[in-house]
Amino acid sequence: MNARDIKLKKNKVGFKEALRLIVRYSRKRIYEQIKAISFITIYLFLFQVLILRLPVLEGGLIALGLVFTVIGLAIFMEGLMLGIMPLGERVGVKLPQKSKLPTILLFAFILGLLSTFAEPSVNILKTIGGSTVAWKAPLLFMLLNARAQLLVSAVGIGVGFAVVMGLLRVIYGWSLKPFIYSLISILSLLTLYVYLDPNLQYLLGLAWDSGAITTGVVTVPLVIALGIGASQVTGKRIGDYGVFGIITLAGLTPVIAVLIFGIMQLPN
Question: What's the pTM value of the predicted model, to 2 decimals?
């Protein structure tokens, strides 16, 4: 028996020990999620009972739903830390080393676009579309129903441009301020234009909400991991925390994209 076999034998873990380690690790992760949702759950319960003075109906079903929520969040966070984050960071490290700038930017744009399609909260747009009254907000009704997929594509294009700008900032060490000032200026002008047009007014809320729903459970960790990986290779000038500005950009560019898309839908 050589040294390698002795080492493997020494590190071998029995079934009971492995099960004990898994239970201990899972218990820690589940406890973290219980703490995360406990405050909002207690608040809603007390508000309903003490302020609204309403009984808690179907308490058992609600409790079962909370159990599923805790387990689902624990599994999701584990998958996030083991899968999406390392994958995005690894791609961010290798991409600048093996590809030229146009390829990097094209990949970043497609990543932002596809991550939007995978974002669960984007489906809320289609759900809300069914409750929109056509004769009160015809343009909004059309975008949320007949052209819902194009609307989601517009949001994805906005996120794609945000990821491109974020990676350029990481690669060249640019400051975040010029991006913010430019985007806010464009947003202010577009918002004013849409607000003054009676046909577009109802689009404002949808556009600004689009910036929030796209920065969700898929886009945020994936984009941040990509930026962290790229900064390890090329972005040392902006510091270790400069990658977080990408999410700021991803919250603004979809709003611009939706406003422009809505304006394009007006008849000539």
Answer: 0.77
